[in-house]
Amino acid sequence: MRESGAQAAKRLQWRQEILIFLATLLLLLWLLAVNGAPFYAADSASYLRGGAFGFHTGLLMVQDWWQSLFGATPAAGGSSPESAVAGAIASAGGARSIIYSLFTYVLRFPGATLLGVAVAQAAAVALTLSSLRSMMAADIALSASLTTGAAVALLTSASWYAAYAMPDILAGVTIAGALALTVFFDRAPFTLRLTLVALVAFCITTHSSHPLVGFGTLVTGGAAHFWLHRGTRTDALRKVIWFASPMVVGAAALLCASYAAFGEASLAPKRYPIQLARSVADGPGAWYLRDHCATEHYAICEIYGPNPPRKVNDFLWGPNGVRLRATPEQMDRIRAEESIIVRRAAMAYPAEQIRRSVRNSFAQFFEFGLHGLVFGGRMVAGEDPFVIQRSTDKPGLRKVGEAIIYAGFFGAVVLLWILRRRLTRTEIAAISVAVAGLAANAIVCGVLSAVTDRYQGRVSWVLPALVIIIAARIWSESRSAAMRPS
């Protein structure tokens, strides 16, 4: 039976979408070709090491469960998986994302280069870009669609942070995916909705800052959707369930992974005390400990007295940092007391805490360069993987890339102002949600961590990407109008 014209057109459209996705993905990989490998941080090796440990420990847990199920006797002299996990956490001082660690280990190929990780991250960016383009500018030509992908790959930070073997870029994917799911919900087919829910849920699990960023974007995106579309209560409830699904699925995955690994259901198990480090660095935490260490007997006071290190990195991971100095018992107490100290310090010095938090958030919003992305690094595999500098860095290329990223971001803002009268209500809503997502990221990182390029660089590409798609839509409509006979 011959297929109908509608079926043929749908098949052609799917083929075109796959072509655009693959072309965008290849364009996003240009830095991998230049560098010959992903960019690495010291934490890249930690994720790989943790993923290998978690994978093999998980196999031991399954083996123990299987043996207990059938009454088999475990081998004598072997340590239990639970004690192995406890020992690893004790030596490391804390744990990073279990799910991203396993993701890193599974996609470490070829060898232990983590190239698979970078390609998968670039694919996540390409998928969200293709989804947004198909829903915002469905009628633009193939050449214009390919041009939008090239512009995002070359003019924004997306390619740089997708090539970074760290979970950073997935914060941007969280914002873009949540925006696509909420603002453009009615334009998304069922399979795309499910894909976006799964993608955003996964991204939320990969770093402790992502749940807050995802929650903020989903809430503002949902509000924008209901501002655009009125419906029945039943329809609204159905959409609320869809919009909440990424957070529910992501939280469930985190709780299950935490319980399986540590025997405790937590959204941030065995976390490093980053909030306490930030409070101390800002001042209120340091002043509060200075005044109360002698009377409150906090665990952190047992290590440093009333004078803990005043820089975040020194406090956490420096040679005199809490990770190295605290015992496992003290680290557990520090985690338990962290929120108490931070809250009491903020209440004792509210004006200073607000001032520092606002200043840090504002600075973080405009701090999205490429500091820390070093060319020439290579991962050395083995039982204890680590990163070495195998070839010379390319600071000139990094400076050029940074200049292009800033020019692209602010150029997109200027272009948005120029095109403001031709924006649709839906595009205005999408831009507003993107800005809210970028602001949420800046607040989360500025208030709870340290101000640094990578935290905002990982998300700054979302706004220019939207503007590029909008510009392509307007250009295509203008071109079609000019070619139409009068």
Give an account of the 3D structure:
There is one protein chain. By secondary structure, the chain is an all-alpha fold. The protein has helices spanning about 5-30, 30-35, 40-70, 80-90, 100-105, 115-135, 140-155, 160, 170-185, 190-205, 210-230, 235-260, 275-280, 285-295, 300-305, 310-315, 320-325, 330-350, 350-365, 395-420, 425-450, 455, 460-485; strands at about 375-380, 385-390. The protein has a two-stranded antiparallel ribbon. A hairpin with a 5-residue loop joins β1 (about 375-380) and β2 (about 385-390). It is globular and about 85 Å long. The model has no long low-confidence stretch (mean pLDDT about 90).
Write a compact overview of the structure shown.
The chain is mainly α and 486 residues long.
Question: Which key phrases capture this entry?
Answer:
mainly alpha, 2 domains, two-stranded antiparallel sheet, globular
Number of helices: 23
Listing every helix as H and every strand as E from the N terminus to the C terminus, the arrangement reads HHHHHHHHHHHHHHHHHHHEEHHHH
Q: Strand order within the widest sheet?
A: 1-2
Radius of gyration: 24 Å
Q: What's the overall average pLDDT, rounded?
A: 91
Total beta strands: 2
Q: What's the main sheet like?
A: 2 strands, antiparallel
Q: State the separation between the terminal residues, measured CA to CA.
A: 42 Å
The helix-and-strand class reads: mainly alpha
